[in-house]
Amino acid sequence: MIKAHPTDAMLHAYVAGELNSASALVVSTHLDMCPHCRRMANAVEEELACEFESAPAAQLDGDDMHLMLDAIFSSSASKFDTEVSPYPAQAEAQAPVKPKDAMITLEGKRFQLPRSLANQKHRIGPWSKMMGNMWRAPINLGTDEVANLIYMDRATSVPEHTHRGTELQLVINGVFKDEYGSYSDGDMLVLDHTHQHTPETTDEDCLILAVMDAPLHFTSGISRLLNPFSSLFFR
Ligand SMILES: [Zn+2]
């Protein structure tokens, strides 16, 4: 049961085509996994369509018209049933993905990627080992945004840290927990400087899609020595 979802504002921005590609990839992948948010997104889509329909055409000046056309062409209208994505990084390879093409392997384990992420499989770079039993594979979206797949093996923890910017995390498979709760398949977290936490896995491993706009800031003990290098680990 998914219990952590994008905020209404984020869902609205997603449908309106206002999120950057990396954040859109996280929300889109969450939608693949979350029927509740798919319904919400469809409702927002209808709401936006009604707003445009009710705007008198004569009152649209050149800029408004431009905005409207942008919105129409970047809109996720019908996306949820026709596989068409609103964002450039996701606009390619939108045909349904065969299950075997959506598999990735790491450390002898196989993971099934949700459709939005599977469509970006060719953008996933090589895995590299980070601290402890964590691995990272960058996802090159062709922009400055930083998206990574992070794999935490069982009984692994990240030193306590906070976030200088905003980080989106989506659990693709497995379970991790922190001081706020326990998260599993489909849970999507929005983390910022107000969250100081120590993510860890116990008897299950965890594959996470993570997008961040600034390096982590480690807050406790010797791990603070990592701060000058945290951009190497987490970007
Ligand atoms: Zn949801």
Automatic annotation (TrEMBL):
Q: Which NCBIfam families does the entry link to?
A: anti_sig_ChrR (TIGR02451)
Q: What is this protein called?
A: ChrR-like anti-ECFsigma factor
**Pfam families assigned:** Cupin_7 (PF12973), zf-HC2 (PF13490)
- Mind telling me which CDD domains this protein's record contains? cupin_ChrR
- Where is each ChrR-like cupin domain found? 126-210
Q: Which domain of life is it from?
A: Bacteria
Can you give the residue ranges of the Putative zinc-finger domain?
9-38
